[in-house]
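Notebook entry, structure prediction.
Reason for the run: the old model in the group folder had no record of what sequence produced it. Starting over properly, with the input documented here first.
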Amino acid sequence: MSAPTVAVLGPGGVGAFVAAALDRAGLPVTLVAREATAETLMRDGVHVTSRALDADWVARPRIATEVAGPVDVLVVATKAIGLDEALSRVAPDAPGLVVPLLNGLDHMGVLRQRFGPQRVRAGVVRVQSDRPHAGRVVQDSASVRIDVAGPVDGRVEALAAALGRAGFDVRAGATEADVLWAKLARLC
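New structure, fully documented this time:
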């Protein structure tokens, strides 16, 4: 199974960390950011200190301000408040699979309306990760876990394998309700 091409929308504590870890593992990843942030990332890279991966490194994923062409997976890692603006930088037909790593529930309807219900799978991340400033990520939790709702197909299997190769604990196949509500219960 070949590695999927991944675009990560949102260069914050979660998005930059996911993109940097995939890049560190040698996987094809693009980090999508606003123009000013993209300039900083292109110049300086993403400096990561990770407890879970027991490493400090500078990642240099591909940086872009939009997703115009096809990608196998779009990981959405923006804040909910900035979701609409961020989605304007992604062509609706570009991603084959969309996996959001946002808190809450409302984003699922927004993403399904934009990309279609068959391409959007609920996802959550369990991580403590902060972006003190553009291009700097400090990840403090002992582990990183990403859950993706089922059904498990080739797209989800390829994403899970890529994330696993990057050092994440990945669980796939639970129901959407189980994935989303478990995260909400944990946050409460």
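Summary: The first strand starts at residue 6 and ends at 9.
The old model has been moved to the deprecated folder.
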